[in-house]
Amino acid sequence: MSAETHFDKVALIGLGLIGSSIARALRQVPVAGHVVAADRSEAVVARVRELGIADEVTTDLGAAVEGADLIIACVPVGAMGAVAEVIGPRLKPGAIVSDVGSTKGSIVAQMAPHMPAGVQLIPAHPVAGTEHSGPDSGFPELFHGRWCIITPTEGADAAAVAKVEAFWQALGSKTEVMAPDHHDLVLAITSHVPHLIAYNIVGTASDLEQVTESEVIKFSAGGFRDFTRIAASDPTMWRDVFLHNKEAVLEVLGRFTEDLIALQRNIRWGQGDQLFDLFTRTRAIRRSIIDQRQDTADPDFGRGRK
């Protein structure tokens, strides 16, 4: 067992898709000597006990982190500050606190003020997930071959950063380190705005009440089905994402709006060459994603298992 990846005690706060997947992965990989799972929901805690995916389960977040070497907050972005406030006084010196949220600047702002001296805050974002949520939705292979972005703040302890990287690599992830604000811009274009577009187009279909209950559902083609899969993601999580990464999202959304207007003009004026050039470039991007094994060329995109 490598000292670089070993923690005597790991505490997971929040047992949804990501938290329960980490817990399951830790059953297969010798990274943690003892795993504590904590959630404020009695129902979630009861279900996690039934699943047997942690050594200890509790609703007491403060008690869960006592003596823990690594604490990972797996709660919606908007709840990070409240969690940090509760666990801060109970953290031992030398502990590493991390997270799995998809916005980083906001999380640093919420959590850092509650970190006592001697505790390292090393945010992270595993870029992996499905549209499902809750402790039953997790599976240990979720992180295999996926990226986990580590976003330490300036002056963070290099050894702590390396330990968080090694942890995610042990769970099967590829890792990259970048600044929190750069992460937020990158994820705005690769994840946040695409989700916003999906929510919007499915909402538009819902507003067409005369067809939604018949034609739109009955004749859903692949494109609309993909949008509905994305739009089925956890509402609380995505509400918080947009509110906590609004600057980057609005910047990318503004650029998208300009490009959409240009596309509208191409269609209106029959500018087929421009349309063909755009579709050729976007097709190449899809092939690049497959080549880098971030998706598959299967008809169902390899998502049939879930």
Largest sheet: 6 strands, parallel
Please count the beta strands (DSSP E, at least 2 residues each). 9
Output the number of helix runs.
12
Tell me the strand order in the biggest sheet: 3-2-1-4-5-6
The best one-word shape is: globular
Q: SSE order in H/E notation?
A: EHEHEHEHEHEEEHEHHHHHH
Give the integer mean of the pLDDT values: 89
Computed CA radius of gyration, to the nearest angstrom: 21 Å
Report the helical percentage: 40-55%
* Low-confidence runs of at least 5 consecutive residues: 301-306
Task: Give me a quick take on this structure.
With 306 residues, the chain is of the alpha/beta class. Helix content is 51%, strand content 12%.
Overview of the molecule:
This protein is an alpha/beta fold. 51% of the residues lie in helices and 12% in strands. The protein contains twelve helices and nine strands. It has a six-stranded parallel beta sheet with strand order 3-2-1-4-5-6. It has a three-stranded mixed beta sheet with strand order 7-8-9, with helices on one face. Helix 5 links the parallel strand 5 and strand 6. It is globular.
